Structure formats: structure tokens, C-alpha cells
Amino acid sequence: MDRRRFLQASSLAGAAFAFGSRRAWSATADAHVEIMLDESVGTIAPEIYGQFAEHLGGVIYDGIWVGEGSSIANIHGIRKDLVDRLKQIHVPVVRWPGGCFADSYDWRDGIGPRKDRPTRTNFWADDPDARRLKGNAVQLYENNAFGTDEFIRFCHLAGAEPYLASNLRSLPAIEFSRWVEYCNSPAGSTTLAKQRAANGSAEPYNVKYWGVGNESWGCGGNFEPGEYAEEFRRFTTWVPSYGVPLEFVGSGPNNNDLDWTSGFFEALRSRHYMPRELRGWSVHYYTWNLSLGETNDWVAGKRDALDFDETGWYELFLQGLVMEDIVQAQWGLLGQYDPRRQIKLVVDEYGAWYKPGTQLDPTHLLGQQVTLRDALLTAMTLDIFNRHAEKVGMAASAQLINCLNALFFSHEDKFITTPVFHVFDMYAAHQGAQSLRTNFSSPQVHYQRKGKPATLAGLLGSASMNGKTVTLTATNPDLKQPKLTEIALRGSAKIASAEASVLTDADMHAHNTFAQPNAVQVKKQAVEVQGDRLTVTLPPASVSSITIHLA
User: Would you call 349 a catalytic residue per the annotation?
Assistant: First the structure.
């Protein structure tokens, strides 16, 4: 995308606009926010706040699964601390088992008595980062101790819907249908239903969300879009529903590849095939290239999670805000093939991806430290999804624990939250609420990028309303300047009270460790109510959540 056009787009999304001729704003305020109570964008799907758990590094083993005989507090082998924290943030959906792992996974390997389950080579065993693991078996060789039944139990404990990613690359289509049968066929109805009962659940799991392949343009088969469309038709034609309203998610583009999207849907249209179960179009976008435009190489473009300067701080956000352009472009193209708008965008992999070396446990493949910078990036991303609630139907942060943009770190009996967890906690009130059109006005952030002046939107956020409660979330990315912010509600409602919380630190590198688990945490924030307006100071480098109670 043209850099100048991107900066203009981000400014429009997060800053500049005309407020009109309403009551004058305070001359002392640095920034202004105008919330339109009567202008709903759409319902914020709770599923936007989903998570992703792949058989990769320490996500499953040492993260979710500790084993039933473990001295670590667990519920049927599942780490109890993790379950409790996921309940706290009301996790709506979890995607599993991948990722690239999914297209090497045979679901039958993960059912039945664990002592009889086979050990397979993990997809990630040949990743360059795996060389440092020196034969660590649990990371390189999959023992299948955690399979479909364990995953569904985990979801039920956490209060989440399961989202299963199928193997389109290396299993035949009948195995997809059989997996649906194993999960959803009525009690006692089929051989697989009886097998499910023998494995602990006579009643069906009623799994609704099914990903049809993963990254089929890459690790999921290196297909051309037309080839993938042919496989998609074979996998999804006449899959029994067993009374469950199945929702299939197609394997969408890498970043903003419009040719992949148009090629896939043109191929479906040429065969007059558009199943009603196709409800989602997957989009993957990682913020990884922090080379300031020097390279597009997947390895060389990455930088360190902890070792960054002011430019590196802002560069992460500059690249991350491209997500808004992707959402708008993909949604616009989808409308040409789906005028009824039954297909929503499913951003089921996103987050920061750094070079290895900062993980808390050296056996955690693709592990990386998570700092305040990553919390702000995650907040900005969730605000994009909220602002485009009519377009985005589901999302999944990559990944849940011990990997990439993790919410949690664990090792053996140690377990901590990261700054990203706090963002999901602060934003939980948006789930199921009505997204409101909200205008933000703030001076832009000015900094140096490759020796030249650069700018970034000075204030970004979103607002929603649920009953008589309005939730405003806002990010101040400026490392130096606090923002005295005036917030006005447009509509007939009156403000009864308000409270606020903030996630920030004087150190832009701030992060939590096993030794200092609460170095970065949420604190209460002062907010002043004056009639139909509020005033709050947003600290530098901060994420804030403001709850407004209407009379």
C-alpha cells in the first residue's frame, strides 16, 4: 500500500474530522472524542475476541495440557489457572489444532485411550527455530495426548465455542465428514457416536465452526485459488449437519491478496456453488516486518521483541494499522460475490511476530516476550474490529499461551499473564454490544523514520453500548505526551457516572516475567463528569477503558 495513502487513511480512522456546530470544546483539552449514541455500526460479535491454540511450541503441552496425574492444579489434565483466567475475559471461541499443524493432523490419532494413541512428527519439527530444541520430544514429536475430546472439554470448561480447523492438504474429504460425524452425530446413532461415548461423551458436541483448510495458499497445500476452490467444493458438499447450523470458514488470503479472494470466488461462481454454510472468509495478517522497508524477507525483516527504540515502537503500530485497510478491501471485494452479506471476515491469525530469543522457556518454539508495545498493538487491532463490526464476524489472537502474541506464559507450575491479557480483560465489555460511530480528534504523533519526519494517528479507539452502559476504549501511542481528553455523548441520554482503568508504564519495554509477574498491570484512572461530557487524561503509551453509566 502507498505510504502516503496509508497515513491519510489512518488519520481519518483515528484522528481528523469536523465536529460541526455543536457546543464548543474546551480550549484546554488536547484531544476530543465524540460518541454518537444513536448511530450503531452493528453488533460486535463476541467471537471477535477469540483465541488460537496450535500444537506448536509450548501452547498445548506445558500450556493447556499438564496431564491428569500432574501435581499442577488441573481439571482432567487441563491447567486450572488458565481456565480461570479465560473465564475472567469471557473467551468466546478457541481455534484448534492449527495453523499449519492442522493440515498434517489426523483427528483419529487423538481419540481413544491415550496409551494407544500414536506418536507423530509435528509439522513444526523442521522449522529453523526448532534446531535449538535439541530433540525436545514434546515440541518435535506429537504424542496426541491432547485430542478432540480433550479440546472440547477445555472449551466447555472455559465457556468457549470450539472452532476446528480441518486437514484439507493431506486427508481425504471423507475424513472431514467423519470428524463432523464424530463430534455432532446424535447419541448412539452411528459407530462414531458410540466411539465418542466410549471416549467420555455420549451426547454430541454440536461443533458449529469448521475451518476448511488453513493457509491453503502456503503450508496448507500451495494451491492456486481455483485449485483450492475445487477442494473446498469436495470437502463441503453434502456434509451432514445433524441439526447443527454449521458455519464453514474458507481459507482466505495471506495479508491483503485480492487475487486469491477473487480467484477463489470466481471459481465457485463458475460452478454455481455457494453453500449456505460458507459463513466466514479467513484473513491472516501478522505484524512482523519492522525493517523500515529495507527488506520483505520473512526472516530478515523480523526484529527483537525487547530490543527496540522509539522508531521501532511506532513502526509496529504503523504496520499493524494496515489491518484496517485489509478489512475494508477484503470486505469490499466479498460484496461482489456475496451481495446478501452472509459471509463475514474471520481474522483468525493476527498479532506481532518477532525473531526468536526472548521466550521465557527455551523449549517453547516461536516463543517471544510480550511487552507494553504489544498490548497497544492488540488494543488498536481490536478497536479496528469493533469499528468494523458489520464486517468482522470472528477473530483469533495468535497465540493463546507461550507463543507469539501470547496472553499467558507458563512452565511447569509457573503461570503468569502478559500485558496482552490485560487488554482482552479491559475490552471484554465490548462483546455483544452495539458498536457506535465515534470520532477521535488529536494532534498526530511526530517522529523520525529513516532520518525523515513521520507521523502516526495520535489517538485511536472504539465505543460500544450495551443497555445503559457505554464502553470507550482508547489508545494513546505517543511515548512522550499525555492527552487531556474531552469526551462528549451525542444523543438524548444523560451521564449518571463513569469510571476508567489504564494499562501503561514509564518504560516502553515493560513486560511481565515469572520473577516479576505484575510488573505491568491495570490501574484505576481518574475521570471527571461534567454534564454530557467527561474529561480524562490518557497517559503516554497507554490503553484506557472508560465505562460510562447512563441515567
Answer: yes
